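hey so u asked for the seq, here:
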Amino acid sequence: MIRASFDPALLGACGTKGSIVAYFATFEKKRIEEMAGFSAKYRKRLEALLERFVDPLDIVRESVYHVGFAGSFSLKAVAPALLGDSLSYEGLNVADGGAAQRAFTELIAETTSELRRNELKRDLLLYCEQDTRAMVETVKWLQSIDQEPS
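ran it, structure tokens below
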């Protein structure tokens, strides 16, 4: 049920042209490959997304270091270190990818109450919003330092 509506929604959101920016794109690309394996109808269109990915992690890993990373290049370490605590995930009920996966699994379970589903949806949306904000602001920061005179 969910997959039947998710594949066309994802394809519609991504369109057919332009870059798809994803921090740690390897993970996202693997999920799309898995989706393509389950969907004969959308396989070619899903696979076409793969070549469009751009990963800011590659640039950060090669060119940027901050003591606040504490040895990690994850977005959860990089964004707050470079851009401040407003991009921290602290205080969110869903604060990392593992928690997001668990929340989604609970969300789609038939036994989950409507009240709990609403809580999970809210928590997942807040996490996704913070993740998107952190990535966008990190990319803007990378662009700004690229524009600085040498």
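Residues 57-150 form one domain. The chain has seven helices and two strands.
lmk if thats what u needed
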